[in-house]
Fold:
Amino acid sequence: MGKFTEDDLKKELETKEYEYGFYTDIASETFPAGLNEDIVRAISLKKEEPQWMTDWRLESFRLWKEMVEPEWANVRYEKPDFQAISYYSAPSKKPKYDSIDEVDPELLDTFNRLGISLEEQKKLAGVAVDIVMDSVSVATTFKATLAEKGIIFCSISEAIKEHPELVKKYIGSVVPQKDNFYAALNSAVFSDGSFCYIPKGVRCPMELSTYFRINQAGTGQFERTLVIADEGSYVSYLEGCTAPSRDENQLHAAVVELIALDDAEIKYSTVQNWYPGGKDGKGGVYNFVTKRGLCEKNAKISWTQVETGSAVTWKYPSCILKGDNSIGEFYSIAVTNNYQQADTGTKMIHLGKNTRSTIISKGISAGKSQNSYRGLVKISPRADNARNFSQCDSLLMGNNCGAHTFPYIEASNKSARIEHEATTSKIGEDQIFYCNQRGIDTEKAIALIVNGFSKEVLNKLPMEFAVEAQKLLEISLEGSVG
Amino acid sequence: MNLKNKLLSSYIAFEDHLEADSPIYDLKSKAIKIFENEGFPSKKMEDWKYTSLNSLLKTDYSLSPKKDHAVEFKEVKQYFLHDIDTYKIVFVDGVYNSFLSETTHDKMDVCLLSAALSKPKYKPVIEAYFNKVAGKDSLTSLNTAFAREGAYIYIPKHREVEKPIEVINFATGNEAALMLQPRNLIIVGENAHVQIIERHQSLSENAVFTNSVTEIFAEKRAYVDYYKIQNDKANASLIDTTYISQEEQSNCRVHTFSFGGKMTRNNLNFYQRGERCDSTLKGITILEGKQHVDHNTLVNHIEPNCESHQDYKGIFGDSSTGVFNGKVVVEREAQKTDAFQQNNNILIDDKATINAKPQLEIFADDVKCSHGCTIGQLDEEALFYLRSRGIGKKEARALLMYAFANNVLESVKIPELKRRINKLIATKIGVHLGFDL
Structure:
């Protein structure tokens, strides 16, 4: 084989089609486009929700109508027309399956092409999969094992029906309806999502994971996730997504709420690979997500995210460290290529005494993309001995992309200790030369260096995801050295 | 009547003094329109998120003081760098004071902006430089509209100015509340060197609100060393905006020492317009009481192979608040940029607050950019070490604070000034160690 030059790599990367870009034709029941109170009521009715939930949605909708879209983020995009979106779509054949054989074969085929074989997933030690295809939960496994421990892991619509007391108590408690424009929208129209409750003192025996896919043209996806870890419990929750190739923009506005009661620990990992748009910047998913966790006394919430997809990302998984001695962590890798734009980061709000937080953010930008880190570390006057360490590193490939850092640090307590560090660099020619010299081709060398750069974050991912994430990084980046 | 309306209506009267056909007139009428549209900045604006002007705007300021007031040299001697010879441009209540000043036209110009604006011989220079780097934000525009006095410094090619130049604005307190809008224009020619010290000082406890704008042009290989001393009285507020345009291989250093004043806002903007420029921004902030200091810096790397170094230290006591908003922009063409930014803060008292926002915006890939920001306390172990060696608690703390600030202090190039700042720090933290750093 001749020398594989950087230009070849670039070409290969540019021509590489989105690997998961295909479209499954499942007869689905879709609402007409547009949003008004009737649609909100219809969604609620469709989900057979109790009256309080309908009222809650309507209240959110009324709040949303008063709000305007935020513009402060460092991203530029064509604003979605909220009246042109269909707010509900569900695969119409919707029996509850007992075994995998009963699932629509076409659907199964989709998953197989995605590389997620259910059988394989089932066999994979300790992973329960709740597959969400176009907003409606299709198959749930390992439910029995979880039920034994008293763990509730189901779709949020099921939870609204079966555990209304829990949902009523916690929904909107961390991300209020009027929190922001997209959170309000989500509160009004969320179609489905996951609900998880770990009872007191229970350590969840397996990684809980959900796969999301957007599958219907012109359908916004509004997921709502609620994870409650009761006193002294532990759960590790995994979320991963891929979406088919599409030319018009798709809106994804999810809300994730985590509640860690006293001494509880939640580990929330995400691998996000929504369709990033073509290499000319057309299409792609808009990902406007509100994720927030609340820590009570001695609790710990750890966010880990690998962001490789979406045309526009706007996402700040945050921790409110309310209880004394609580801990918040945020580990993130955000990769942008072509015309992707990402504005992502975290908020660590220190309210309790002796609270600690760690932020490790790695941004990698290539092509013509823009990658921003935006974070807030806030130490309230009563948060004695709060401690924060933040590190944001950016890697740039080529001079058509941008890397930006917007850290906000607000300290109003004299015992606070805050350290913030940010660096920006490129992959050194000497590093590549060193690898070349030892017989490692340029493509592999870049993968190696990027992996090394991201190691701190990749290490935090659960085993199954670490492998997938590493693969994603390689696919998204190889050949983009400038 | 609120301050904005007062300013707008008094502009009409002020306008009458201007010649209607001069280019300056045009500039000023455009500027007042910008201010009219935008008004004073509010906390809703990203750049003013942590600093509110509301308390300042409630005061009824006098915009044009009645008569210039005689000030005896002995009254104000302490504010000058009196132990060495310097050029001095002194303004009292916004009016030039020839008695206290020492200007020159000997192969360079150290004089008044009003003279430069009105005399035809300066016309080419004014046309080439005046208001050319200044921004179009509302406060700068307000200054552009109203400014009639300030320092004009023109250093021609290859000229090394032998002694520092002091620019001092006194406010006598004749008026219950006074608003000043000085405007300085400084042009440093090719390969020329200059050291400038700027100070705003009120002589009474009466309220003063200064909205100062300075434009500095550093031509090729020019060297500009600029010091800002902000140690004003408790009722004085200052918005100090500086724009620096740098050409190839020029070196500009700005040191800001903020110890006094009620509210101080420093907008320091560097534009590197040639290759191999070097910019240095350093500052020491020591606050107590209810003081508020906001450092807003911008370094815009436009051309390749440039460097910038920022180092700001802050010590915050009582219920003072500090803001550091440092922005480094590296444009696409600015390859091989080396930008470094550091901001260290110590909180001494429970009610003190620090808000920091170190920002990087990078569009070029082959660059070395980093920033660090820390907030912490004096090291207990270091304190213990000193105390176990018989050093009193107060002295030990002072020693550590000195050490903390020393990085910035040691790069002050004028020994007398360094000694003076040392003394200011000693008074501010209430301990004199009996040695100079």
In short: The interface with chain A takes residues 46, 332, 335, 345, 347-377 of chain B (CB under 8 Å). Chain B has two domains: 3-274, 379-437. The radius of gyration of chain B is 21 Å.
